[in-house]
C-alpha cells in the first residue's frame, strides 16, 4: 500500500455553499485513512465519488481527463475543483499509476493514437480505437497496468460484460498480490464490490463511512431483483 490518507484542508475553504464543498459527503469530510490495497467508493449518483477520485488523481499529477503522469492532452472541463484542497499522505510515495475515467476514455484513445511509437505494446498491439469499448479497457488493464503503482478507476465496469468484470477482478487480484499495486475504484457493480477483503466506503447519508458488502444498495437491490424479479417489476411498473 502506498497512499495511506487523504485530508481535506478545511482551513483553506472559505465557504461550503458551492461545488465541490456543498456536496454533503465532502462538506463533512476531515480525513480518510486507507487500510487495504483495494478500496471501493460506492454511493448514489451524485454523491461525490468522482469528485474525490478526480481530486486524488489531480494530486497524483495524473491527467484528470484520464491517463498517467506522462499523458499530456486536454479535454474540456476535466480539471479538478477539489484537488488543491486535499493533501495525500504516502508511505512510500510512488508516482506510477493511472486514472481511468470511463466517460473520457475516447479522448485518451485518440491521444495514444497520436503519441504511440511502440506498436501499441501497452494496449494489446492495436489502437484502442480499433478495439471495442470493453476490449480496450481490458487491454489497458492487462498490458499497461503493472508493478508498484496506484490505479484510480472511475466506473471501470462501464464497458465490461459480467464475464469480463470477473476477468477484471482476476487482473486486479494478480496486480495486488504479485505486483503490490493499490486500487481505488468508484463503482456501481455488485460484482466488483464482491472482491474479497476490500474496504468499501459509502458516500451516502451525508458522510463517507465504511460499509459492509451485504449492506450496500448495490448488493441488496440486485439480490432482491434476481430473487423476486416478477414481483419487483410488478410493484415498480404496475402500481400507481
Ligand atoms: N463541475 C461541476 N460543477 C458543479 N457541480 C458539479 C460539477 N461536477 C459535479 N457536480 C455535482 O457534484 C455532485 C457530485 O458529482 P460526482 O460526479 O462527484 O458524483 P458521483 O458520486 O461520481 O456520481 P455518479 O455515480 O453518477 O458518477 C453532483 O450533484 C453533481 O451534479
UniProtKB/TrEMBL annotation:
Q: How does it sit in the membrane?
A: Peripheral membrane protein
Q: Give GO cellular component annotations, separated by semicolons.
A: plasma membrane
Its BP terms in the Gene Ontology are: double-strand break repair; iron ion transport
Q: Which Gene3D superfamilies match?
A: P-loop containing nucleotide triphosphate hydrolases
Q: Which compartments is it annotated to reside in?
A: Cell membrane
CDD domains, from UniProt?
ABC_ATPase
- Keyword Secreted on this protein? no
UniProt xrefs under SMART domains: AAA
InterPro entries the UniProt entry points to: AAA+_ATPase, ABC_transporter-like_ATP-bd, ATPase_AAA_core, P-loop_NTPase, Rad50/SbcC_AAA, Siderophore_ABC-ATPase
Q: Which UniProt keywords apply?
A: ATP-binding, Cell membrane, Ion transport, Iron, Iron transport, Membrane, Nucleotide-binding, Transport
Query: Pfam families per the record?
Result: AAA_21, AAA_23
Q: Where is the ABC transporter domain?
A: 8-230
A molecular function annotated in GO for this UniProt entry is: ATP binding
Protein's name according to its UniProt entry: ABC transporter, ATP-binding family protein
Organism, by scientific name, is Aneurinibacillus aneurinilyticus ATCC 12856
Amino acid at each position: 500500500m502506498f497512499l495511506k490518507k487523504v485530508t481535506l484542508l478545511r482551513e483553506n475553504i472559505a465557504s461550503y455553499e458551492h461545488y465541490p464543498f456543498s456536496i454533503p459527503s465532502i462538506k463533512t469530510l476531515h480525513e480518510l485513512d486507507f487500510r487495504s490495497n483495494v478500496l471501493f467508493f460506492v454511493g448514489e449518483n451524485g454523491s461525490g465519488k468522482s469528485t474525490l477520485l478526480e481530486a486524488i488523481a489531480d494530486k497524483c499529477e495524473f491527467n484528470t481527463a484520464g491517463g498517467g503522469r506522462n499523458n499530456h492532452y486536454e479535454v474540456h472541463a476535466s480539471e479538478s475543483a477539489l484537488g488543491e484542497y486535499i493533501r495525500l499522505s504516502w508511505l512510500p510515495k510512488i508516482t506510477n499509476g493511472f486514472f481511468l475515467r470511463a466517460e473520457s476514455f475516447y479522448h485518451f484513445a485518440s491521444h495514444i493514437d497520436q503519441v504511440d511509437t511502440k506498436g501499441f505494446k501497452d494496449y494489446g498491439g492495436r489502437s484502442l480505437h480499433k478495439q471495442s469499448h470493453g476490449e480496450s479497457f481490458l487491454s489497458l488493464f492487462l498490458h499497461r497496468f503493472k508493478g508498484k503503482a496506484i490505479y484510480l478507476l472511475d466506473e471501470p465496469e462501464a464497458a465490461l460484460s459480467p464475464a469480463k468484470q470477473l476477468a477484471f477482478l482476476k487482473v486486479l487480484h494478480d496486480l495486488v498480490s504479485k505486483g503490490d499495486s493499490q486500487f481505488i475504484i468508484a463503482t456501481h457493480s455488485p460484482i466488483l464490490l464482491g472482491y474479497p477483503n476490500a474496504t468499501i466506503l459509502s458516500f451516502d447519508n451525508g458522510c463517507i463511512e465504511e460499509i459492509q458488502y451485504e449492506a450496500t444498495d448495490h448488493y441488496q437491490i440486485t439480490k432482491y431483483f434476481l430473487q423476486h424479479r416478477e414481483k419487483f417489476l410488478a410493484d415498480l411498473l404496475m402500481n400507481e
